[in-house]
């Protein structure tokens, strides 16, 4: 077909652009309109010859009470943005996606756009993209004075009208005797609906249409309520939010500040907002000041006058605790909390305190949890309890409550009216039965936003074809190191081996040391689907007995893994050292290696310790171990920190995936040996890429914590008679070494655990975005650092490999590699993914600890980690498990009586006294652990004090799989009955109020 036939019309679009000098520049763009764009329907024979494929099929219609005839759907932009959960269901079929809408969705929400593309690619669903903006009969010009949004709405209506007429004409030409198929516009915009009705278009809102799908009555559960601020303030619980214009004006004139809101895990009435330019985060306290912010939201805050600044409370407070008390108003709750805070504020350094006045960007995400059964018969409104304690409970509507009662479910928050204590949301899907290992692992991955879907066909098509061989050209382009005695040292069961080592004596008496890293960048080329997927995932995530790979298994466990006795591509960093570990020279090259052994840490340690072993691998390991000890001492002398965190290892059943045994991880000299040479390689490579690319090297820094961060550590050490100096990393390291108690072997480890919690997060960054004095890595006491040694499981290392390859001429650069702004955005994603992967791994340990205690009771040694005003926080080292034992309620913040047991808190010494027993931080205790499974929705890990034993007193650890919570023993039947009556009354009132609001909306 010639161009004259295809492009029947050409129009021009004019724009004006103001230059920096104030000149007006006129831009004219040609806009071609075509006639070869088909409608995609099997009803139209005229378009058949120009359709790439027929997507809209007449036999795929759904039954609707609203439109009881065959029909196609056209969606406006907001329907896709707000109702994507509904659209993902198979009930919605034969849908026309206009490019006007597709482009708007792409511009406004990348997450919704990606989900929409996934639906479109599923051909069975019948979602057809119609290029209305380039079709001769559907393109509309923007009118003078017409807004872009109004023009797009008009374009959607115009295209819908054309489609309906086009298909009616096609069916008439075909002589079809069946009921005519029509085109329906779905929109939740009242004005758009009015215009559509005026134009004679069949139109409906999503709620009415979804509710009318007779074969899918439960689909309405997934309908998302839009944000609606009510004018009626008679029942308002929260202050109103400022408008977008008021927020923008306030930020410009510096009356308002903006930042990311972080909810407090220990106290749901507290949170902080990190604001650029402030050393400490801005403290937010009380329900009204939090003003409906959800963890992760970008918020606008107003700083309070300095005389109203406060300090974080020492209270551990759960929302469930308030439910068990009388129906306090938020004012009453705040008064109790404020009274406690005021006392502490007199003695402490106050920090900037503010209140949230608006939500700039909602953290739109899905949450996992359980449904709290309603006490009202046949109720459709229910409370959803998230697994994450930082997320508030959510009010949802569902007609499937009985079915979902023992299920883990997923919910999305839609809005939070001023008149509701809880946000409103909708049911998304069920994950599976409570307590099931696969279900709970899915919860962990979803809660921590870990991408874990199967790799797409597009990604898998980027993998090398099997069988894969090394060609003569490959050998010629690399340094051949196959004859060197290289070996890897890893944990048992490791299949993604990305590093190996060697050390050999040179004729001049020096030593040659090599670190050889899997050359993943050879297989993952820039810009491919595989590269984009790896960049999005950012890192491999390790759960107990399960691994979520960053790259497909063919690479991670096979072609890239430096397994024993197999030839593999590597990127080698080689030094010449003297016997005192001084570096005399270094070199980098792409290589081919053949590892002589894939050892575990234990196997390597045996080779080193057994003097009868005289093989080359044993000699190499002994040299490496000796050099590593020198390197480590040198680092320690420079002020590097040795911190601690409780780490455990589970033995998991290969079939059921349930934990069989648990033990603390053993660290050997070989662990430290491998660590030292990986650190050295990372530092060496960082120096080299920075020299060549001073503006765009990807590095990793660890900011020095502000002095205030160390207050809990300093205070805890002082209470035990030790002084911890924090003026420098060197002083801190020396101070931690002196914190030793002969009577408490675990004391030094706990002090180091506290020190770890005072640290800032280590971050990836691009060299040209910061001053050189900010490159410093505080924990390692290294002026420069990067990640080079784990490219199988970290995308940052792949970028560093590409930079290093460009430095030595082994590969060429490309535009994106040197794009500072683009790589800065990449670093933000990598930092986020790295943090979420760490949290997910910890949550997996907590889950398996929970499963391990099913059907058993066990006494374990523990330690009091923190003494709070109303609680003890206890650490069980063997399991790395931390539990909160609640002691005092808000009614009396110094004394409480439970089962005849009185606890008294001493604010001076930070101790809790019960009779003759006094609890201090770091005190050893023996705790009996057992699992209470009487409530299938909330199994509780019971913590009972055994030593020191307190008669009549036991505590429970309420384990929500990902977080460890606790409460006092179950309330008496009388109290429980009273609580249920009040809850039932509150539910009835709130449901009636919700119904009124919905009716008005």
From TrEMBL:
Pfam families assigned: OB_Dis3 (PF17849), PIN_4 (PF13638), RNB (PF00773), Rrp44_CSD1 (PF17216), Rrp44_S1 (PF17215)
Signal peptide limits: none
Subcellular location: Cytoplasm; Nucleus, Nucleolus
Cofactor(s), by name: Mg(2+)
Basic residues biased stretches: 975-986
Cellular-component GO terms for this entry: cytoplasmic exosome (RNase complex); nuclear exosome (RNase complex); nucleolus
Matches recorded under SUPFAM superfamilies: Nucleic acid-binding proteins, PIN domain-like
Domain RNB: 478-810
PROSITE patterns hit by this protein: RIBONUCLEASE_II (PS01175)
Biased composition (Basic and acidic residues): 987-1001
CDD domains with a match to the protein in the record: PIN_Rrp44-like
GO terms of biological process kind: CUT catabolic process; nuclear mRNA surveillance of mRNA 3'-end processing; rRNA catabolic process; rRNA processing
MF GO annotations: 3'-5'-RNA exonuclease activity; endonuclease activity; RNA binding
UniProt-listed InterPro entries: Dis3_CSD2 (IPR041505), NA-bd_OB-fold (IPR012340), PIN-like_dom_sf (IPR029060), PIN_dom (IPR002716), RNase_II/R (IPR001900), RNase_II/R_CS (IPR022966), RNR_Ribonuclease (IPR050180), Rrp44_CSD1 (IPR033771)
Segments for region (Disordered): 964-1001
UniProt keyword terms in alphabetical order: Cytoplasm, Endonuclease, Exonuclease, Exosome, Hydrolase, Nuclease, Nucleus, RNA-binding, rRNA processing
Domain PIN: start-end pairs: 71-194
Family designation: Belongs to the RNR ribonuclease family.
Protein known as: Protein DIS3 homolog
Organism: Glossina palpalis gambiensis
């Amino acid at each position: 077909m010639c161009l004259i036939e295809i492009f029947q019309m050409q129009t021009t679009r004019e724009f004006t652009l103001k230059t920096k000098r104030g000149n007006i520049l006129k831009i004219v763009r040609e806009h071609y309109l075509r006639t070869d764009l088909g409608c995609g329907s099997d009803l139209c024979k005229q378009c058949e010859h120009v359709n790439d494929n027929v997507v809209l099929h007449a036999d795929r219609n759904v039954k609707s009470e609203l439109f009881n005839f065959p029909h196609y759907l056209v969606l406006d932009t907001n329907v896709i943005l707000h109702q994507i959960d509904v659209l993902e269901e198979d009930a919605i079929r034969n849908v026309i996606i206009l490019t006007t809408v597709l482009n708007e969705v792409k511009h406004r929400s990348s997450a919704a756009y990606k989900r929409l593309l996934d639906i479109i690619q599923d051909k069975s669903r019948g979602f057809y993209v119609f290029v209305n903006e380039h079709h001769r009969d559907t393109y509309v010009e923007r009118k003078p004075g017409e807004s872009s949004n109004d023009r797009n709405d008009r374009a959607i209506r115009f295209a819908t009208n054309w489609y309906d007429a086009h298909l009616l004409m096609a069916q008439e030409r075909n002589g079809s005797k069946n009921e005519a198929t029509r085109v329906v516009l779905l929109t939740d915009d009242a004005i758009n609906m009015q215009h559509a009705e005026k134009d004679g278009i069949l139109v409906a809102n999503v709620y009415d249409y979804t509710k009318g799908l007779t074969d899918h009555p439960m689909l309405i559960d997934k309908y998302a309520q839009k944000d609606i601020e009510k004018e009626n303030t008679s029942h308002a619980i929260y202050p109103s939010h400022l408008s977008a214009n008021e927020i923008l004006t306030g930020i410009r004139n510096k009356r308002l500040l903006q930042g990311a809101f972080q909810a407090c895990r220990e106290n749901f009435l507290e949170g902080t907002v990190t604001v650029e330019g402030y050393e400490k985060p801005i403290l937010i306290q009380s329900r009204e000041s939090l003003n409906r912010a959800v963890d992760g939201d970008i918020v606008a805050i107003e700083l309070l006058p300095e005389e109203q600044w406060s300090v974080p409370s020492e209270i551990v407070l759960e929302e469930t605790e308030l439910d068990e008390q009388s129906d306090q108003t938020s004012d009453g709750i705040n008064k109790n909390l404020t009274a406690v805070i005021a006392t502490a504020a007199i003695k402490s350094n106050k920090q900037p305190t503010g209140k949230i006045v608006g939500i700039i960007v909602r953290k739109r995400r899905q949450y996992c949890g359980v449904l709290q059964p309603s006490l009202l018969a046949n109720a459709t409104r229910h409370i959803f309890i998230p697994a994450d304690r930082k997320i508030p409970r959510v009010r949802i509507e569902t007609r499937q409550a009985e079915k979902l009662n023992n299920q883990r479910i997923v919910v999305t928050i839609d809005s939070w009216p001023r008149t509701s204590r809880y946000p409103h949301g909708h049911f998304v899907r069920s994950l599976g039965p409570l307590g099931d290992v696969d279900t709970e692992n899915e919860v962990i991955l979803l809660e921590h936003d870990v991408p874990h879907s199967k790799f797409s066909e597009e990604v898998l098509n980027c993998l090398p074809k099997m069988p894969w061989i090394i060609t003569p050209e490959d050998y010629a382009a690399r340094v051949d190191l196959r004859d060197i005695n290289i070996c890897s040292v890893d944990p048992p069961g490791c299949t993604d081996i990305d590093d190996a080592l060697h050390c050999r004596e040179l004729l001049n008496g020096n030593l040659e040391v090599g670190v050889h890293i899997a050359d993943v960048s050879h297989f993952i080329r820039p810009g491919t689907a595989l590269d984009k997927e790896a960049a999005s995932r950012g890192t491999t995530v390790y759960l107990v007995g399960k691994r979520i790979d960053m790259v497909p298994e063919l690479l991670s466990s096979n072609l890239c893994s430096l397994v024993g006795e197999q030839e593999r591509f590597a990127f080698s960093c080689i030094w010449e050292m003297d016997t005192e570990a001084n570096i005399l020279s270094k070199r980098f090259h792409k290589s081919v290696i053949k590892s002589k052994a894939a050892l575990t840490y234990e196997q390597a340690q045996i080779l080193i310790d057994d003097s009868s072993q005289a093989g080359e691998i044993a000699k190499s390991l002994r040299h490496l171990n000796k050099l590593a000890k020198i390197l480590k001492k040198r680092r320690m002398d420079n002020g590097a920190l040795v911190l601690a965190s409780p780490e455990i290892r589970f033995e998991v059943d290969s079939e059921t995936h349930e934990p069989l045994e648990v033990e603390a991880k053993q660290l050997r000299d070989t662990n430290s040996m491998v660590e030292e040479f990986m650190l050295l390689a990372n530092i060496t490579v960082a120096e080299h890429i920075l020299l060549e690319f001073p503006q765009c090297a990807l590095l990793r820094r660890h900011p020095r914590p502000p002095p205030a961060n160390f207050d809990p550590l300093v205070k805890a050490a002082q209470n035990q008679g030790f002084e911890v100096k924090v003026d420098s990393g060197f002083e801190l390291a020396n101070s931690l070494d002196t914190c030793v108690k002969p009577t408490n072997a675990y004391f030094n480890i706990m002090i180091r655990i506290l020190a770890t919690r005072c640290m800032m997060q280590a971050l990836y960054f691009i060299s040209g975005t910061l001053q050189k004095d900010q490159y410093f890595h505080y924990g390692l006491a290294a002026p420069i650092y990067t990640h080079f040694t784990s490219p199988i499981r970290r995308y940052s290392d792949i970028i560093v490999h590409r930079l290093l390859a460009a430095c030595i001429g082994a590969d060429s650069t490309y535009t994106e590699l040197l794009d500072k702004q683009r790589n800065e955005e990449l670093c933000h994603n990598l930092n986020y993914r790295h943090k979420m992967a760490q949290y997910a791994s910890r949550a997996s340990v907590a889950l398996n600890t929970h499963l391990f205690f099913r059907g058993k009771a066990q006494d374990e040694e523990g330690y009091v980690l923190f003494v709070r005003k109303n609680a003890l926080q206890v650490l069980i080292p063997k399991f790395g498990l931390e539990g909160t034992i609640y002691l005092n309620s808000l009614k009396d913040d110094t004394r409480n009586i439970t089962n005849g047991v009185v606890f008294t808190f001493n604010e001076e010494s930070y101790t809790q006294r019960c009779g003759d027993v006094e609890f201090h931080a770091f005190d050893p205790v023996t705790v009996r652990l057992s699992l209470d499974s009487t409530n299938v929705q909330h199994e509780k890990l019971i913590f009972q004090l055994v030593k020191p034993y307190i008669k009549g007193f036991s505590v429970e650890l309420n384990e929500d799989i990902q977080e460890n919570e606790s409460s006092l023993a179950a309330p008496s039947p009388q109290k429980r009955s009273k609580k249920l009556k009040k809850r039932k009354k509150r539910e009835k009132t709130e449901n009636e109020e919700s119904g009124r609001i919905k009716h008005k909306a």
